[in-house]
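> Could you send the Peroxiredoxin prediction when you get a chance?

Sure thing. Input:
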Amino acid sequence: MEFGHKYEEPVAAPGHKAPGFALKDEEGRSVSLYDFIDGHSVVLVFIRDVDDAHTGELLDYLKDSYPRIRYHKGDVLAISPGSVDFNRKLFEKHKPPFHILSDEDCSALKKYGIYNEYDKLVGPCIFVLNRAGIIMYSYEGKNPEDIVSMSDVIAVLHDAMISPLDREYEI
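Output:
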């Protein structure tokens, strides 16, 4: 007997628990989201697998903002659909103080609802997770040069430091 219930995948949106993943970093080591969180907030940044001016600008912007992110008890994970080798070259070129993870099969992009069948990822996307793994903020760039304001991200991280774990943040 079938009841016709349709169960949907959880949505990666503010107020929801972030979908977990384990991906390889620029050195080929496995990094699990929930092992990485370990009691602090995380800024997940999905970047394109293209070494162009826009990707470089975003990585440099994050690198410059990293001390402020750390001050607010946060850390960064960048995720690219590129290979470990591609990400290693990107890492060596820009020298970010955070990992660039490889999502070659686009499983994380799909879990977060940002996968594009034709381009994999159109613009950069950011999800800010609190220390319990709840998505507090998300931003989806509409094109490669559409980069989120870091002051918005810092405001969310500040709020995550002083708020209960289940509170959603709105800008």
